Amino acid sequence: FGAPEVCEFHKGWFEETLPRLDRSIDVALLDVDLLASTRTCLIHLFPRVRPGGVVFTQDAHLRAIVDLLADARFWREEVGVEPPIIERLGTHKMVAIRPRS
Question: N or C: which end of the chain has fewer CB within 10 A?
């Protein structure tokens, strides 16, 4: 999904590495398979997405992930943002999650 030379890789558990992230994000691709990992990634990554940026997840075929992504309370209370625009939720394995303007 891109050129590895322009990607950054941080070895470690999401709970340990993501809170230390100190930069904005243009594009993130999640393929983590687990509800807890998806939750952690979105809590720490999504607020850092720049306007026009996007988070993709390849886990939108999993019922628990679909339920999480569709939960307005999760977005407002845990992520701290208005529920984003999520294209193709519930119909495709990979979905794009974009901040509202």
Answer: C
